[in-house]
Amino acid sequence: MSDVSADTVESRPDEASPSALEPTGPRVRASGRVSANADDGRWARRRAPRRAAAHWSAEAREVRALDRLRAQEPVRDQALLPLRYARMASSPWAYLRGAAAVMAADLAAAPHSGLTVQMCGDAHVLNFGLWASPERQFLFDVRDFDETLPGPFEWDLKRLATSINVLAGTERLGDACAQDAAAAAVAGYRDAMRRYAEMGELDVWYDRITSDVPLRDLTSEFAEAAARTIEKQARKRTHHGVAQRLVSEQDGVRRITLDPMKRVDEGMSHEERIRAYEQVYDTYLASIPAHLRRLVERFTRVDSVRQIVGVGSVGMRVWLHLLEGDSGQQPVFSQIKQATASVYEEFLGPSEFENHGERVVVGQRLMQSASDIFLGYTRVDGTDYYVRQYRDMKIIPSGTEIAGYLPQFAAVCGHALAKSHARSGDPEAIAAYIGKGEAFAAGILGYARAYAAQTSADHADLVAAVADGEVEAAERGW
């Protein structure tokens, strides 16, 4: 296809005749290599016209949103369900975070591109942040993988753009800021994917977003404030920093401090906790590379507690273990979190992995430039879990912290999402589907505005259900 004909097709509506999108020959990359992959992306526009992605109507739903949420109750700790609903009812933003299952069904109700990547599955704007690589370098990346599954790339981008609109509303930033930030996320994704489409496979795989990238386009005032926040949180979120806040000494023995809203011991005896820990780690060790087993075996469990975490994860079974190295100088916190089927499996088919902990671990390693060396998975009494370090130099922003520079932050989130997708998908095909014009952005941004309004309506329905007694909600722990 010549440059003239490509621009002509790009300027036409997505509903152009099929012949306008017929592949007329392989594309020549800037590198000089001939590739037919771009034709796959242009063909995908027939399956899912880009501007048509903007359409959303609740009439497409076969199951009401509240029933989707309640269908998740059986796999969760029943005692914590009231807390889950109380947190979700607190704001449309909290509702969106907990309603990934609702949005998954709604995304699946419309045609999709068929261009498959390893989806994050919950790519909202605060599920991006800084991690320390094994070399202790701060990298910016996607950070949550509970719902990860291979699926169409645009579903992640739709959730990201929607979340930006919802967060902007919660922080009262105004419609103009919301639209600018969502547009920045889509542009960041588009521009990065175009670059990845021209790169070699190893160059894509090795690419990293360092901690200075989110600060580059900020004014000096915001950049300095953000840099101070990163430095402060980096000190607090080391294992030593966490130990100073969460560990106390009782009768000469170190114990994780308890909090009925965050950490409890469930009345288990010390011996019972030891047995539970040993059962977990016997199977966990088999899931990690052999050369890391020696490292893990140098740590001894000191204490264990149950945790309440997040909004969407409330009710999932989560354990926090305090470990101590043989040196006596190295405390390590290990978190073991329940993994259930991804909310997308109902629509995209079951995961190839029998253990959902393995699904999460493999998805994380596929999407991140560098992952926690302790990542692993296990199964105990029929329940799947994944294992990771807890707060090992993980810097997670709050909505308030990024409100002053939401468009700039959103642009880097789009870049990071494109990087993750390029590692597992076909960046040439995705870039060709997106194209040079505004059709793709118009579709994603239109959907994001419409679905943000739907989220507010669904949140109001949950609040009403709580008020009517249909759903029990209470701010209490165990």
UniProtKB/TrEMBL annotation:
Residue span of region Disordered: 1-49
Domain of life: Bacteria
Pfam families assigned to the protein according to its UniProt record, in alphabetical order: DUF2252 (PF10009)
Annotated protein name in UniProt: Uncharacterized protein (DUF2252 family)
Taxonomic source organism: Promicromonospora sukumoe
